Amino acid sequence: MESSTSRPATSIPIPSRVVLRGIIQFLFAQDFKSVDIHKQLVSVYGESVMSESMVRRWVREFKAGRHSLEDESGRGRPSLITDELTTKIENAIRNDRRLTLDELHNLFPEISRSLIHEIVSEKLEFRKVCAPGMF
Question: Most CB within 10 Å of its CB: which of 2, 9, 27, 79?
Answer without folding.
Answer: 27
